[in-house]
Design goal:
294 residues; alpha+beta; Aminopeptidase; seven-stranded mixed sheet; two-stranded antiparallel sheet; 7 helices; 21% helix; globular; SNAT-like; GNAT_dom
């Protein structure tokens, strides 16, 4: 079940090899630096392919930062020491909405139950995982669940705030190749019994099962559309593959989300028999096989 509406510092040469002075002296001799007749400066700028204005500064520097495609201007190696550092462009990183969250991922535990309940509210009520199921799953197999958190950057003098859970993936193991209603159920006496069976069929988490059954991929509504879900799922798949602990990952999703999962390598296996939340699900499976991680 899922929910996604998703240089090091430089120094100037000690001797006057280029006819240029450090930036600190720029105000004293700015006119000579900007002189188009300065042969050394003209040679360097010509090799760098930079046009000069009457004032002597690169035209590119007058453009809007958002329109700059390259991080810095390429310079011939022999001119590197002569090239004034104040003509260098600092690396440009186009920040995304995800960057603004200062996100990090980590495994979940029972201490995160209330956080998960809050995130799960992104689903219609009939499709939400219950608090009891969170307690069960995060107690029995917490290593199969992952959360993406946000932690704001604050002044060092202030106390460190508690990280906020933005999205989660909750899962268990099953011996079936697909997610089933039995795999999604909460065993009645799970705290006393390690295994639960009904009609000789396992219920809930099956230790040793070859399929990781994802029961919830949810993102807080106010953070949907920020690539939280895709970042979380990509990280989860990588971790499961790297650990080599399962044959496949399975999930059920509504039809409109099938393309999203297919973009991560999941294959549609047709309509699901699961009636959880009223049914209407599609089976999706990512076969892990014996692929090696890069």
């Amino acid at each position: 079940m899922s929910d996604l509406n998703d240089q090091p510092s430089e120094s100037m040469a000690g001797s006057d090899t280029s006819g240029l002075k450090p930036l600190s002296n720029a105000n004293d001799d700015l006119q000579s630096i900007g002189n188009p007749g300065n042969s050394d400066l003209a040679r360097i700028m010509n090799r760098a392919g930079i046009a000069m204005t009457n004032g002597g500064f690169p035209l590119d520097d007058l453009e809007d930062e958002d329109e700059v495609d390259e991080d810095y201007v390429a310079v011939d190696q022999e001119d590197a020491n002569d090239y004034p550092y104040w003509f260098r462009r600092p690396p440009t990183h186009h920040r995304t909405k995800l960057d603004e969250l200062h996100p990090f991922v980590q495994l979940l535990s029972v201490s995160n139950v209330e956080d998960c309940v809050q995130v799960e509210n992104a689903f219609p009520e009939a499709e939400r995982c219950s608090r009891d199921k969170f307690i069960y799953r995060l107690t029995r197999c917490p290593e199969l669940s992952l959360g993406l958190f946000t932690l704001p950057v604050i002044d060092e003098s202030k106390p460190k705030p508690r990280a906020t859970l933005v999205g989660h993936i909750i899962a268990t193991r099953t011996s079936e190749p697909l997610v089933t209603d039995r795999a999604m159920r909460l065993p009645e006496d799970w705290q006393a019994e390690r295994w639960a069976f009904e009609d000789n069929q396992a219920v809930g988490h099956e230790e040793g099962g070859g399929t990781i059954a994802i029961h919830s991929l949810a993102v807080l509504p106010e953070h949907q559309g920020k690539q939280v879900g895709s970042t979380l799922l990509k990280s989860y798949i990588h971790r499961i593959r790297e650990a080599q602990i399962a044959d496949r990952i399975a999930i059920i999703a509504h039809e409109h989300l099938v393309p999203f999962y297919e973009s991560f390598g999941f294959e549609s296996r047709g309509p699901s028999k699961c009636q959880f939340g009223g049914g209407g699900w599609v089976n999706l499976v990512l076969e892990l096989g014996n692929e090696e991680t890069s």
